[in-house]
Amino acid sequence: MNSMSLMLLLQQMVNKSPRELDDEIIELINGLKLFDFEILSRTKIEFLKFDFDAVKFKRAIEACREAVREQDMIIEYIKLGASAPMMRALFGHNATEVGALREKLGLSEKGGRPAVPTVAEQLAIANTWSASYKMDEREHYLYVAKKTGLSLRMIWNEINSYDAPEIITKQRRKNTARGVVQLRNG
């Protein structure tokens, strides 16, 4: 193990598991200099024992992949013109977070009232939506946007002008709750 890895590992131990270390050990670790870590990394005395839980590691990797997929979807939504109310309902993001994401991506929201779809656009939205009704709601909106070439904001407003099926309402509550939990834990 190199000195940098050892330094990071010991600092993680102090930060994440201070109850497992007595005060003297914490003080020793905190007092180490970079050169001390270099010497320690080459010592023959074994003072670390690793425990690797493959099942927990696989769960952590899957959670990481799911978070990346969700983040990718959020970015795609922003790029396809999703409105703040849509992002709130589907992902639990408030208007400030949506604005920050837009700014980070170098996109600006067009002000004013959203464009009203033409009759042809309304038909395209309705037909594409009904032909693909078995999808997860968030995937469903992306599918319709990609198939019709219309903005998610327009699609959202059009779909929400209909009587929303009960399943959509339940999915929105679930997604909004997930976003609130992420905000509290993040």
Overall description:
By secondary structure, the protein is mainly α. The chain contains ten helices and no strands. The longest helix is centred in the middle third of the chain and has 26 residues. It is elongated. The two termini are 32 Å apart. The C terminus is likely disordered.
Q: What is the structure about, briefly put?
A:
Helix content is 70%, strand content 0%.
Total beta-strand segments: 0
- What is the CA-CA span between the terminal residues? 32 Å
Quaternary: single chain
- What does the overall shape look like? elongated
Round the Cα radius of gyration to an integer and report it.
25 Å
The main β sheet shows up as: none
Following the backbone from N to C, one meets helices and strands in this order, namely HHHHHHHHHH
Global structural class: mainly alpha
In terms of DSSP E residues, the strand content is under 5%
Mean pLDDT level:
82
Helix content: 55-70%
Low-confidence stretches: 166-170, 176-186
Total helical segments? 10
